């Protein structure tokens, strides 16, 4: 059962809760989860929640079933107080703070049967979150961003529906050596249907506008392109990742 605490239970406890969310947005030891799906998936994959808040009139039936199995207290807040937890964010009725899992990036770079998705200097947290969601669904080993957007940013976690907890997800400041074969997604590469993709590859995707860096092109063992209709210059990042993950030799269906 979920233990509930209402806002009138004490102004001091409400202020402490707000501060907990403010701190979590600035401290990379924590993750802010926004919305039903993010909380649900995080709990399914082992997240430890330290704070949960709910709009006061939201029915218990709308809570994720996984939340009912925890001992965490759910704080029911009025809309003005609830908005203080998400300044400048789109409204959702459920938010939580969880401990961010530690990720061994070097272990993720070691060979395995499942591919590793690498995003080189992505610029949009929402796109990064969508990639995490695709990668989790397709059974990828993990997602690593190089520079650019943090895959644990609240917008990315929202876009990923909390599935950052389902697989290793991390950010690096620069490319690291890997013993995985490197596959670069490049418009000048071999068409995807004609290429022989190695199992367990590090699949490196560039930005929609600038593509891959020269460094990645030099390091690639294989370069592949997703065929597109003439006049169409690019795909959304998450769509490109989905196409490759669901057509490669590692697919499970």
Count up the helices: 9
Whole-angstrom Rg: 20 Å
| Helix/strand order, N-terminal first | EHEHEHEHEHEHEHEEEHEH
User: What is the oligomer described by this structure?
Assistant: single chain
Averaged pLDDT: 90
Number of strands: 11
Which regions contain 5 or more consecutive residues with pLDDT less than 50? none
Biggest β-sheet: strands ordered side by side in the sheet: 8-7-6-10-9-11
Indicate the structural class. Answer: alpha/beta
Shape: elongated
The N- to C-terminal Cα distance equals 37 Å
Approximately how much beta-strand content do the residues carry? 15-25%
What are the salient characteristics of this protein?
alpha/beta; 5-stranded mixed sheet; 30% helix; 6-stranded parallel sheet
Question: Explain this structure to me?
Answer:
The protein has 253 residues and is α/β, with parallel strands linked by helices. Helix content is 30%, strand content 23%. It has 9 helices and 11 strands. Helix 6 (125-138) links the parallel strand 6 and strand 7 (142-146). The longest helix has 16 residues, at 11-26. The two termini are 37 Å apart.
Brief rundown of the structure:
This protein has 253 residues and is α/β, with parallel strands linked by helices.
Topology:
Elements: E1 3-6, H1 11-26, E2 30-34, H2 36-44, E3 49-55, H3 65-68, E4 73-77, H4 79-85, E5 94-99, H5 105-108, E6 116-120, H6 125-138, E7 142-146, H7 154-159, E8 169-172, E9 182-191, E10 202-205, H8 214-219, E11 222-225, H9 237-245
Parallel strand pairs: 1-4, 3-4, 6-7, 6-10, 7-8, 9-10, 9-11
Antiparallel strand pairs: 2-5, 3-5
